[in-house]
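DUF2835 domain-containing protein: structure, please.
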Amino acid sequence: MSEVIISVSLSAEKYLEYYRGYASGVIAYDSWGRRIQIPANILRPFVTSQGVHGRFRVRFGPGNKFQSIERV
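Here you go.
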């Protein structure tokens, strides 16, 4: 299993683009500066009225399939 630590700072309006069908993924950068694209829906548990903000550990399984996400 591989994992990355990413920082996310999305306003509520920006995250709404996912619900409106304008975006399906979120692009973030990991702690090494690599560009990571994740499905926007995995951030749903962390959405507040201000959007999504924080550092997260994202774990991937075989074939780089999403496994889990947690706030760090």
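Notes: The first strand starts at residue 2 and ends at 10.
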